[in-house]
Amino acid sequence: MSDRIADEEPVAVTHTGPKGVINDWRKFKLESMDQETLPPNKRELLRQMSSPHKPRDSCVGGINRKMSAQEYELIKEDDEKSLRKYRKQCMQEMHERLSFGPKFEVVYDLDSGEAFLEVIEKEHRLTVVVVHIFKDGVQGCEVLNSCMDCLATEYPSVKFCRISAAATGAGERFPDDVLPALLVYKAGELLGNFLAVTQHFSEEFFATDVEAFLNEYGLLPEKECGPGADEDEADVE
Q: Which residue ranges does the record assign to the Phosducin domain (predicted)?
């Protein structure tokens, strides 16, 4: 296997002190509230509290003044809902900063042994590559192909591929009795070699069964949150 694997790009992380976090939270709350429904005095108070800069002399109070009861009640309003939204936004931004490599979302059809070797050797060293070796007419191969299509959308950072046993150039190594086969690679290293993989499933199996099997061996990354994650979490809480 080639040693020329692309190095992981450094991740830029912003470090913020406690005061910065508080100011960011207040600013987020100000921006997320319906400004038209707030009385002018409350709108101005929240605006002042969201500013990280020192107030001018013309502003009410000094930099070291205590928070008034009115201000306390203001920031207390809808805090639970706003804080939940703020936390989700921060997690999403952090995930975007830490995410790496391309998104695949489809199953790639490989047509030769050279293409098979290339996808193993040249993919990003942190990308998991799952290859299904199949043969038309062999029981379980067609269903497993459909499962791969589903998993490719569920795990867009994983590169799912399929190749017929004959196209590998080593068909003698993959007779019908060892198909369908699943091979899992990362950084050019073989992590999983599952021959006749359907023997681990019931006669009727689904994408969730294949997913659970791969997760049992720790071969899939954590599943990414979908668009409805915010609403689901809100329902739970």
A: 13-224
Same domain for 40 and 141, yes or no, is no
Residues 112, 24 share a domain = no
Range of 113's domain?
108-217
> What CATH number is attached to the domain comprising 206?
3.40.30.10
pLDDT, one tens digit per residue, over 197-236 is: 999 999 999 999 999 999 999 999 887 655 444 444 444 4
